[in-house]
Design brief:
This protein is 68% helix and 1% strand. The chain is mainly α. It comes from Rhodosorus marinus.
């Protein structure tokens, strides 16, 4: 994975709220030895802040430190990410509280730009200009000042700065989107002035402009202009509004169901993803029921994430029984997806209910659904919250449970999550030592994968490269668990059953993996 690819993936994860995806990308970067660029640190910090971590926790996660490493001033890249997240959450003052001390130490353009935007949101034109003068050479800071001027009500100055900015460089899609989003909440004449900034051919610029206009008009409740922005986006730019864009527009609209209905009436498809965003904002049962009623009325089918949102809402109120009933409804309707299961597991994990959490994994496996990173994290969290397991007991419990229930899980991934949690919680080093993966291997991961080609089918090697951070494992797919084994694999295990492989590994040679490194891979 190259640094540029990592930057883009983390940026997308941050903008879409995919905190788990950002964590996965970050871990892959670390495993591959890819040094994180400043942009990667910013986007990763933004994503995990949006996921609910406090600034100190974000810094410790980024820097790979345990709890208790307090810093008086955060590194500028980390502060920039936290500031961006707080701006997105609508709290510009909290963003400035983190950004300003970091900028004094290191005026990173992304941090300065975020601070300029924060002052714009606070209608503080003087300080926005003052910060801009710290890095006047940065295009990023220049764009931030343009948007800040617009937010301060200085549309004329903002448009003049925009003309000056665009006269020196290719037009910036992000800038036109931000300006148009602002124009959407103002009088139509401002919208017309922004359109005048576009240059032909302007298909992509046009799509970004309509995107910003849709977001701006929907927030003010101007439904007719919002719908027109969406339909014009299709007709004039040829771009179809994404479900993520529609979800943001509908969720931030004062009348979400009315906007969704008008969009559907005008031929713009709406899926459950849009209403899931609205559900996330509900804090009362009446509000939840109203959103579900709107989905039924508009004939929008619920998906796995809809039920996951419902489970999380019940979890916040501690209603475990209701959460389990929702899970039963998911299974009855045959809805495929890990989200509802992992939502239940997270609730169980917070209460340290290890066996109950494992039972959900078994149900998930029986339904033919693969475990995702959240599943592994929930299992690890359950053990840590329960508190009575020694490291050795935890290892034995998961290995024995995997063998007993024939569940396709990689125990090493559970142990890796336990190590992360122990570091974050400041647990003593005994747990970390007990879970430590052997680092004295003579072969590199790439060399081990090449060696495995001789003893496993190509499909399993590809799975190994794609899914596992520790390739020194034995892969057993669902067909083999049912007794259908390849000739090479049968020769390698020398007649042992899958249960024996897990519980008795003394007969394995180095080519097949050590007793500390096994994984059951779901091939179903």
């Amino acid at each position: 994975m190259s640094p540029k690819v990592a930057d883009e993936l983390l940026r997308v994860c941050a903008s879409s709220g995919d905190h788990e995806g950002a964590q996965s990308v970050w871990e892959r970067m670390q495993f591959a030895g890819v040094p994180p660029a400043e942009e990667s640190v910013v986007f990763y910090s933004e994503s995990i802040t949006l996921g609910g971590l406090e600034p100190e926790e974000v810094a410790n996660r980024v820097l790979g430190k345990g709890e208790g490493n307090e810093m008086s001033v955060l590194p500028s890249a980390i502060a920039a990410g936290i500031g961006r997240a707080r701006l997105a959450a609508g709290d510009p003052q909290a963003a400035l509280d983190v950004l300003l001390p970091a900028i004094e130490e290191d005026p990173l353009p992304m941090a300065v730009a975020s601070a300029v935007r924060a002052y714009g949101a606070l209608q503080d034109e003087i300080n926005a200009r003052r910060l801009h003068d710290i890095r006047p050479d940065s295009p990023l800071v220049a764009k931030a000042l343009i948007v800040a001027m617009a937010e301060c009500g200085q549309e004329g100055k903002a448009l003049a700065l925009a003309r000056q900015y665009t006269s020196k460089r290719p037009f910036d899609l992000e800038l036109i989107g931000s300006l148009m989003q602002h124009a959407g909440s103002k009088e139509p004449w401002i919208e017309r002035r922004v359109w005048q900034l576009l240059r032909p051919p302007f298909t992509r610029d046009c799509a970004m402009a309509f995107r910003g206009l849709l977001l701006g008009t929907s927030r003010t409740g101007d439904l007719d202009r919002a719908v027109k922005a969406a339909t014009d986006m299709i007709e004039r730019s040829g771009a179809i509004p994404s479900q993520r864009l529609l979800a943001s527009a509908v969720a931030n609209c004062p009348n979400p169901s009315e906007l969704a209905e008008k969009l559907l009436e005008n031929g713009i498809p709406i899926t459950a993803k849009v209403f899931n965003a609205v559900l996330d904002l509900q804090d009362t049962r009446k509000g939840v029921e109203q959103v579900l009623s709107d989905m039924d009325r508009l004939e929008v089918d619920r998906d796995a994430n809809t039920f996951a949102v419902l489970v999380r809402l019940e979890a916040e109120n501690g209603n475990l029984e209701t959460a389990m009933e929702i899970l039963e409804e998911v299974e009855t309707k045959g809805i495929i997806g890990p989200a509802p299961y992992t939502a239940v597991m997270e609730l169980l994990a917070l209460n340290g209910l290890v066996q109950e959490c494992w039972n959900v994994i078994v149900r998930m496996d029986r339904a033919g659904i693969d475990a995702d990173p959240s599943s592994y994290r929930a299992l690890a969290r359950a053990v840590m919250e329960e508190g009575s397991f020694t490291p050795e007991q935890a290892i034995e419990f998961f290995r024995a449970s995997i063998a007993k229930d024939s569940v396709m899980l990689d125990p090493e991934l559970i142990f890796a999550e336990m190590k992360k949690i122990s570091l974050a919680m400041g647990v003593d080093s005994d747990l970390q030592v007990a879970l430590e993966i052997d680092e004295e291997r003579e072969l590199t991961p790439a060399e081990r994968i090449e060696q495995l080609r001789d003893i496993a089918p190509r499909r399993d090697v590809d799975i190994l490269k794609r899914n596992y951070s520790n390739p020194e494992v034995v892969v057993i797919n669902r067909q083999r668990m049912l007794g259908v084994r390849s000739k090479a694999f049968q020769q390698h295990i020398d007649g042992q059953t899958p249960d024996e492989i897990d519980l008795d590994t003394s007969g394995m040679d180095s080519a097949g993996g050590s007793a500390e490194n096994h994984a059951y891979e779901d091939g179903g």
